[in-house]
């Protein structure tokens, strides 16, 4: 019962109720039917204060649900930067991967979350990690993106962070070839300047 109330308070962002429920003995990392902890529920709703109370009380930032999302991975993928920073300051596992075998950096790059990408790079996430689709963050910022200003900025951040610009996809197609095929001239220039072939 307390666990259900804790999840509801987390979803609503009711930090005071969360503190009260924890004081009454609610299990901080109790799971719902999807395997989510209250912290992951708060992260889904981008409830920053609720997440803060839970993290400060010792919630596990790496606890995964039934589809391999954790508060850390989900905050990164969705661009919830405030919660992401809290997870990073409280033991986020930078090597943990989502259901696609990707780090938090890969979906952040694909979805155009510039500040999130910058935060993850600064935290030390492997910029050349390859997911189950044989794509790196750089590849996803090209192949699954629109070539607009946010993705140009992300490609630049990744390149500046030392990303290998010549890691091909599973078919042997390089980031530069993909950028050219899509007509992403700004991204093409960044890649060429970095020695892309």
Care to describe what's here?
This protein is mainly alpha-helical. The protein folds into two domains: 1-93, Serine Threonine Protein Phosphatase 5, Tetratricopeptide repeat, CATH 1.25.40; 108-197, Ankyrin repeat-containing domain (Serine Threonine Protein Phosphatase 5, Tetratricopeptide repeat). It has helices at 2-12, 15-23, 38-44, 48-56, 71-78, 81-89, 105-110, 114-123, 137-143, 149-160, 175-182, 185-193. α5 (71-78) runs antiparallel to α6 (81-89), α6 (81-89) runs parallel beside α8 and α9 (137-143) runs antiparallel to α10 (149-160).
Highlighted features:
Serine Threonine Protein Phosphatase 5, Tetratricopeptide repeat, 12 helices, 2 domains, mainly alpha, 197 residues, elongated
List the helices and strands and how they pair.
Blueprint: H1 2-12, H2 15-23, H3 38-44, H4 48-56, H5 71-78, H6 81-89, H7 105-110, H8 114-123, H9 137-143, H10 149-160, H11 175-182, H12 185-193
Helix pairs in contact: 1-2, 1-3, 2-4, 3-4, 4-6, 5-6, 6-8, 8-10, 9-10, 9-11, 10-12, 11-12
């Amino acid at each position: 019962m307390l666990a259900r109330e804790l999840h509801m308070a987390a979803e609503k962002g009711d930090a005071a109720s969360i503190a009260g429920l924890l004081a009454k003995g609610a299990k901080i990392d109790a799971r719902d039917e999807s395997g989510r902890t209250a912290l992951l529920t708060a992260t889904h709703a981008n409830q920053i204060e609720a997440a803060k109370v839970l993290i400060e009380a010792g919630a596990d930032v790496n606890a995964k649900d039934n589809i391999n999302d954790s508060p850390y991975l989900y905050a990164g993928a969705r661009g919830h930067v405030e919660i992401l920073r809290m997870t990073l300051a409280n033991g986020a596992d930078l090597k943990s991967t989502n259901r696609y075998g990707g780090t938090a950096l890969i979906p952040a790059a694909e979805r155009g979350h510039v500040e999130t990408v910058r935060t993850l790079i600064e935290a030390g996430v492997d910029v050349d990690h390859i997911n189950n689709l044989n794509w790196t963050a750089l590849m996803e910022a090209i192949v699954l993106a629109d070539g607009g200003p946010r993705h140009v900025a992300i490609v630049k951040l990744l390149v500046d962070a030392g990303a290998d610009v010549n890691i091909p996809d599973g078919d042997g197609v390089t980031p530069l070839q993909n950028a050219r095929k899509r007509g992403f001239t700004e991204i093409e220039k960044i890649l060429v300047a970095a020695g892309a072939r």
